[in-house]
Write a structure and sequence with these properties.
Chain A is an all-alpha fold and 178 residues long. Helices cover 66% and strands 0% of the residues of chain A. Chain A starts with 7 loop residues before the first helix and ends with a helix. By secondary structure, chain B is of the alpha/beta class. Classes of the chains: A mainly alpha (178), B alpha/beta (437).
Chain lengths: 178, 437
């Protein structure tokens, strides 16, 4: 699988690198929604999500030279957004919840189709940020594991493990609820 | 028989490892894999993107940075080439917002206005919401023609965008037309025919119900469209390869909600009452002047107009009511439309990339009247040979949709985004899903 930024995107990045405001606006238009959504899910606040999204693009444009063309622009901005949210959490001194044991190999633990979306969302929201991040990038954006690993400074195996553990936790949470 | 672990089955369903051959032989594991697929679908639905609320501040912070970097680089280049001090005062920090630049452009002297114009033109699409807002609020501005020209300039799509050709073509068309009391959509249908341009309505506009009188002679199409649409609180932009008509809030990130109007002072109240008394004048020119002067006072004059609605003269009272409707800040009914379908920013695997290439390369003509979107998609599916999948139920109300020579990707954007739907590419299928509010 190739995930290199090619075609119009790499041209756009090159133009943005040269300071072309049009190219920068196009990159913001294309990726703002995804970054905002990621930030909103991690912070739970509209204003904070807006700030994170804006700061993410400011940082991305300030350091465009550091963008690795082997990876998509999307995973590059997710990487910056994720780091920024981590900083915010550190500043808030809000310790992430400790992971609860949710390992359950039984097939019965698998989510039933009838589960209400709201319950699933609430289970997802209860995941600690470290597990939630790869989960969002995998499910919301459909990013390949390689790109998620790049965005979160981790290994592909580490990401797979995190997603699987988060999945087990969601299954376990949904089983616990009435 | 050795069954794969739940972890391995999950990994296969999520596409991390190839599916186990064992699945062909074992019905139990196939059922489990099927349930895991349902689980994945449910999780994807639960984890769909959250749409950002409309905000004028969204990209504004980026633009000063882009400009600052450009200016800084220009100054550094000058210093390197000519030595320090060769261009005194070049690095002058300016932090005006687009709104402030628009005000300078409209109200200040020629030199300041020209400078603001240059900066607004450099901002391009980012300035559109504020420019459109300024035009709505200052219909009689001294620089209204320059404002209209700047608005059109800022709508210019990037060179690689197919809508750029439409923008260039529309600028060259001159029309003569005389239509009295016809439905607005009929007028635009006629414009579409005589100009040969793809013009598409946003679904939320009430184009069937609104009537328009439209008489122009040898007028440039952009100016004519402005005259036709502004009256109905509509704007147009160039996107998805067409000229797209919609309320300004839907087209561009809307500026923040207006702050409450500042109450008028005694002198202004007296002046407003005087103009209101002239709304009942027998002389049409005096009535028009009174109407125009009251409008200039903006929403602050609404309490005085309210008094006017209780006037003895029923005609003056009716005019006060009409003015109040016109001046009252309109609450935003819609969120801004996404600029593109989700698949355009997806990172795609090889098979999905082929689907995206097809969406970008196949061209199609459509002419549907009062047709369900599901039927339009059925036609697109037959025409393109693409695999289409729908999560949920597509909108039912019939739509009218006429375009020529658009790519399938652009057509799908026009068929989904105005209706709160979006398109992603999943496992080789073009998948439709409803965007969350």
């Amino acid at each position: 699988m190739t995930t290199t930024a090619t075609g119009p995107e790499s041209e756009r990045i090159e133009r943005a690198r040269r300071g072309d405001a049009d190219a920068r606006a196009a990159l913001v238009n294309l990726h703002y929604g995804a970054v905002y959504s990621l930030a909103f899910k991690l912070t739970g606040r509209v204003e904070a999500a807006r700030d994170v999204a804006q700061e993410t693009f400011l940082r991305a444009f300030a350091r465009l030279d550091q963008h690795d063309p082997e990876y998509s622009f999307a995973s590059w901005v997710f990487k910056i957004a994720a780091n920024h949210v981590r900083d915010l959490h550190r500043r808030d001194v809000r310790a992430p919840e400790p992971p609860r044991p949710g390992e359950d190999p039984r097939a019965e633990a698998i989510l039933e189709k009838r589960e209400d979306l709201a319950r699933v969302r609430s289970a997802l929201e209860s995941l600690p940020p470290d597990s939630r991040l790869p989960f969002i990038l995998h499910l919301q954006e459909g990013l390949p594991i390689r790109e998620i690993a790049y965005a979160l400074d981790s290994t592909e195996n580490g990401i797979r493990m995190k997603i699987y553990r988060a999945l087990l936790r969601v299954r376990s949470l949904l089983r616990e609820e009435p | 028989m050795m069954h794969p672990s739940l972890e391995d089955l999950t990994a296969a369903v999520h596409g991390w490892i190839p599916p186990d051959a064992h699945l062909h032989e074992c019905a139990t594991c196939r059922t489990t894999a099927e349930r895991l697929r349902d689980e994945l679908t449910l999780l994807r639905r639960a984890e769909e993107r959250v749409t950002p609320p409309p905000s004028g501040a969204r990209v504004f912070r980026l633009v000063p940075l882009a400009l600052a970097v450009t200016v800084l680089m220009a100054v550094l280049a000058t210093i390197l080439l000519h030595g320090p001090g060769s261009s005194p005062g070049r690095l002058q920090q300016r932090n005006e917002t687009p709104k402030e630049l628009v005000r300078i452009f409209l109200e200040k002297d020629d030199a300041a206005s020209a400078r603001a114009r240059r900066e607004l033109a450099a901002l391009g699409r980012v300035a559109l919401a504020d420019l459109a807002e300024a035009r709505r609020k200052n219909p009689d501005a001294a620089r209204k023609h320059e404002l209209a020209e700047l608005l059109y300039e800022c709508k210019k799509p990037p060179a690689e965008d197919p809508a750029r050709q439409v923008w260039e073509k529309v600028a060259t068309i001159t029309i003569t037309i005389d239509i009295q009391n016809s439905p607005l959509n009929a007028v635009v249908d006629y414009l579409r025919e005589i100009t040969g341009s793809n013009i598409v309505w946003d679904s939320v506009t009430d184009a069937d119900a609104a009537t328009a009188r439209f008489k122009v002679q040898d007028m440039k199409l952009p100016t004519a469209l402005d005259g036709l649409l502004i009256e109905h609180h509509l704007e147009y932009d160039f996107r998805h390869g067409v000229l797209f008509i919609s309320p300004a809030d839907r087209l561009w990130s809307a500026p923040p909600d207006p702050t409450p109007p500042v109450p008028l002072g005694e002198a202004k109240i007296k002046e407003a009452r005087d103009w209101i008394s002239r709304l009942a004048s027998d002389k049409p020119e005096e009535r028009d002047r009174a109407h125009s002067e009251l409008k200039k006072l903006g929403p602050s004059v609404i309490p005085v107009l309210e008094e006017g609605t209780r006037a003895a003269d029923s005609e003056a009272a009716a005019r006060c009511r009409a003015l109040m409707d016109d001046l009252r800040p309109r609450s935003r009914t819609w969120g801004s439309l996404p600029i593109a379908n989700h698949w355009r920013s997806q990172t795609l695997a090889d098979a999905d990339r082929k689907v995206a290439e097809k969406l970008e390369s196949r061209r199609i003509d459509l002419a549907f009247e009062n047709t369900a979107i599901a039927d339009i998609l059925e036609f697109i599916k037959d025409f393109s040979g693409l695999k289409l999948a729908v999560r949920g139920e597509l909108p039912k109300p019939p739509v009218t949709f006429k375009v020529k020579g658009l790519t399938v990707g652009e057509v799908l954007e026009l068929c989904t985004l105005p209706y709160g739907w979006d398109v992603t590419i999943e496992e080789g299928a073009v998948t439709f899903f409803e965007r969350k509010k």
